[in-house]
Specification:
A hairpin with a 5-residue loop joins strand 8 and strand 9. By secondary structure, this protein is α/β, with parallel strands linked by helices. Helix 5 packs across helix 6. It has 2 domains: about 220 residues, Spore Coat Polysaccharide Biosynthesis Protein SpsA, Chain A, CATH 3.90.550.10; about 100 residues, 3 Solenoid (UDP N-Acetylglucosamine Acyltransferase, domain 1). The strands form 6 sheets. A 7-stranded mixed beta sheet has the order 5-4-1-6-10-7-11, with helices on both faces.
Length: about 350
């Protein structure tokens, strides 16, 4: 990075509805491994942003406001969804045009993007002193995505949309992910000059790139090697893929920290769960919500734990627990049903067993 660190603001585009998800819930509020997508994004940039954090909202905006209560964010309302360029325009009054610094622009339906990749994108942008830097990736099948055309010095020449690409451009496998870092003043200067790109009167952020290139401002691109990080979620199939990728990340993190996962393929653990060392999680186990598990426990098999505090050296076997506090050394199950500290026996349990 440059020696003189500029302030960094962020804009998250989260005004989209759940049309293709076939849902009444805003797309960015669908939960991946226990957290709304937009919360994953906010957590990934948490202490990278030293200026304003703006979330652009539209569809069911009150639900997003409520979900993000307690987060230090400002909201910009996009009453008419007229494209990504228009969404960023809606954030302009909150950020200011001539206040300097950089702006990180993220989409609200890409929860797999990691902090490490965002840091490298920002570093590239500042090292090259660029007006804009695009996060790109390479895909085996880039159909449907905008292609990145580069100059001989590897700076960006253009972004060509798939529908406008010729047969040679369609062979390019480097694509635009929709994540950018901009110089704030250059961004808003270009935004003032973009025009509607279609009959619907929509304004696209890619047109900002075209204006900057035309004005011979430096536009860079940083390629992330893991294309799955940049995956946007537009339907339930993509949602399931994202859930699987993030679940594997969580399980890997836990195993590397000293937790034994006997069968990762049948184990589901939310991102909000904390598990201490030397705990063993057996197959067909779900651990969800704000659950903490102490060291030396055995959980499962065939067990679901939700919002519980389980102290060290406990054994939970083939049971359902919700909202319980389990003291150290307890053995529970099989077939226990504990909810908020009260034991609820299955209907087919013999009266003698209840005693």
């Amino acid at each position: 990075m440059t020696k003189d660190k500029k302030p960094l603001a962020s804009i998250i585009l989260a005004a989209g509805d759940g049309t293709r998800m076939k849902s009444k819930l805003p797309k960015s509020l669908h939960r991946v491994c226990g957290r709304p997508m937009i919360v994953h994004i906010l957590r990934s940039i948490d202490d990278l942003i030293d200026d304003k954090r703006v979330v652009v909202i539209g569809f069911a905006n009150e639900m997003i406001r409520e979900a993000l209560e307690g987060f230090h964010v400002d909201f910009a309302l996009q009453e008419q969804r007229l494209g990504t360029g228009h969404a960023v325009m809606c954030a302009k009054p909150l950020l200011g045009e001539n206040s300097g610094g950089d702006v990180l622009v993220l989409v609200g339906d890409a929860p797999l993007l990691t902090r490490a990749t965002i840091e490298k994108l920002i570093e590239r942008h500042r090292h090259q002193e660029a007006s804009a830097t695009i996060l790109t990736t390479r895909m085996k099948n880039p159909a449907g995505y905008g292609r990145i055309l580069r100059n001989s010095d590897h700076s960006v020449m253009s972004i060509v949309e798939d529908k406008d690409a010729n047969i040679y451009e369609k062979k390019i496998n480097e694509i635009n992910t929709g994540t950018y870092v901009f110089d704030r003043n250059d961004l808003f200067s270009a935004l003032d000059r973009i025009e509607p790109a279609n009959k619907q009167g929509e304004y696209y952020l890619t047109d900002v790139i075209h204006i900057m290139v035309k004005e011979k401002k430096r536009v860079e691109a940083f390629v992330t090697k893991d294309s799955s990080e940049t995956m946007g979620i537009n339907n339930r199939i993509q949602f399931a893929r994202a859930e699987r990728i993030m679940r594997n990340r969580i399980l890997d993190r836990l195993m590397l920290s000293g937790v034994t996962i006997v069968d990762p393929s049948t184990t589901f653990i939310d991102d909000s769960v904390n598990i201490d060392i030397d705990t063993i999680v057996h197959p067909n186990t779900f651990i969800m919500g704000k659950t903490t598990i102490g060291q030396g426990c055995e959980i499962g098999p065939l067990t679901q734990v939700v919002d519980c505090e389980i102290r060290e050296n406990c054994r939970i076997n083939s049971s359902y627990l919700r909202g319980c506090k389990i003291p150290p050394g307890m053995s529970i199950g099989p077939f226990a049903n504990l909810q908020h500290g009260q034991v609820v026996y299955p209907s087919d349990v013999d009266e003698q067993e209840k005693k």
